[in-house]
Amino acid sequence: MSNSDQAAAQPGKARKLPANNLAMHDMFKRVADKLKEKEKAGQDKEERPMGAAKFEEHLGDFFHPENIYNQTRNFPVCPSSANAAKLEAERLFNEGKQEEAAKLLLLSQANTFQHQVLLQYSKKLARQAEVAAKKPVDPDRDMFENSDDSEETYDEKQKRLMLFQSFDKTDVIDRMSSLPPTWTVVQICGQDPLVNRFKATKKDLATDSNPGLVLVRLQSGQVRVSMCPGPNTRACTPYMKEFQEILAENTHINRNEKVKSKYWELRRAVDFRMDALLRSMENKWLGAEKISLLGLLKNPKDQLLVKSVLADTISTLFSERETQLLESVLSSSPFLSPSQLSMAISQAVPTMLDTDITMLEEAASTRLSGLASSPRHPVILICDNTVQSLPWESLPSLKSCCQAVSRVPSLPFLHSLWSAHSSDTDSVVTAGVAQDSVFYVVNPDKSLPETQERLDKAFKVWSNWEGVAGEEPSKGQWEKALQGKDAFMYCGHGSGSKYLSGDEVEKLRVRAVPCLMGCSSGQLSKLGRTVDPLGTAQSYLLAASPALLGFLWPVTDADVDQWTVTFLGHWLGGGEGGEGELLQAAADKRKCFRNVLNGSALVVYGLPLRAKGKMGAELKSK
Prior knowledge:
13 strands; five-stranded mixed β-sheet; alpha/beta; globular; four-stranded parallel β-sheet
């Protein structure tokens, strides 16, 4: 009897198949054994939910990897996710988690612009890959040989720096260490208490209430979040509504009033309204938090004076954070009323005794009053879509101390732009703006003959400048100037986008600093109720322009022309009393506008930079 017959004869014993027929059965057995092991160990779980249900478990934890807002940050969604992040930041702030609140606020800013940047760099990389694919292959080249082509290119690096980061893995605050330590970065967000998924008002209409403000301040390695409630509007017009009415009245006066005496009377009235609005914004809306918009003191003697006042007055030992916050408050004390100073000190150190607060107030008023006119390092503003149209640079405190201010769309973009220029020795940020490397376009459509007459004489002082006056520049001239010169002056209507559109600008890598001296050249406009505002300024920034000077709303040509000449002499003149730093030069000469409304419209975007060399001798010889 054979072995197989014996196995078949034994009851209850399965016939053993040949080994080569048991491979699939063995696999099934292993899977079954593993499942039994999990059951025995108590590791078996219910099936994970699919679709939107899988996000419900971690809906309230924005820093969890599976939070729905965290996992969909790279989708161009409606602003509901940004609004939700702001509300969550408010909750975290109330719990004392300032750094986590700051991360949510910083990463929920300018998401539309961030998508625009990523899209543009993706297009550039796709065009480069298409060109590379058409190049003939070298038959003698070793395909495994390392080459420089494998290194990260400029466009690849910029795209990587602008990629959306998960809330739980972000290093957005840590990357502040890569920026100059003298810079102060402040983000201003409007916090609407009635925020919901669908905005009820039209894109260009103001709400009937003043939104609260949320400020994120990053300075000297410290992160501070503060909130300013919106003032009651029962007895006054909401700020945004008053602002829009002032601009509408300004446009009406400039277009329709022909009688000179009546024109200037109306201009003075609208200037008074703007001045009153700015003072109310500073004292009623910001209150003591207005000092958050002031930069670090430049003069080492001033810094030592602040430290000595604190050391001589209070013997208590403070933490490093408390010391820095107190020094920041004391350095800005000349701009605060006694009640505001007391509030600012108590917020910096909540445990400080009332007697110590009183002594600090007295010491600051007697020994630090001279700091009101002390020079300060620049402040970089990041304004959300609710408040970006307001002239924060012209607040009375900032204007009185000539505070240098610039704007950028977001903190990730600031990192990206600084990385692009700080590592480039040929950039005007590192090498400086050469006074003889300027191209100008004056009155290209021939509708501003008086502007051409005024500026043509002024620009001829700079013998090495190139440009056109009274004629349209070609597209090639415009592109060549932006990519080859250090500065670009446009003196005409608008931003000059009719000669080179924003889409065409974005395809370039801009080297020059554009000074667009036309109406609304620096304005960002909403194209819908639920999208971030965009404009020509952002197109230039997207093209890596180091900085841009423009205006937030319509301005008058005569006032702007005389200011342009004054500003250029101060910035690029290089003579005695001049100021080579672009932001500081603009701040110094903001008061030189004849009209408050024109001066308040001035805005600078981008990085702090300076002119190089001197041309004082040439100017004097002319």
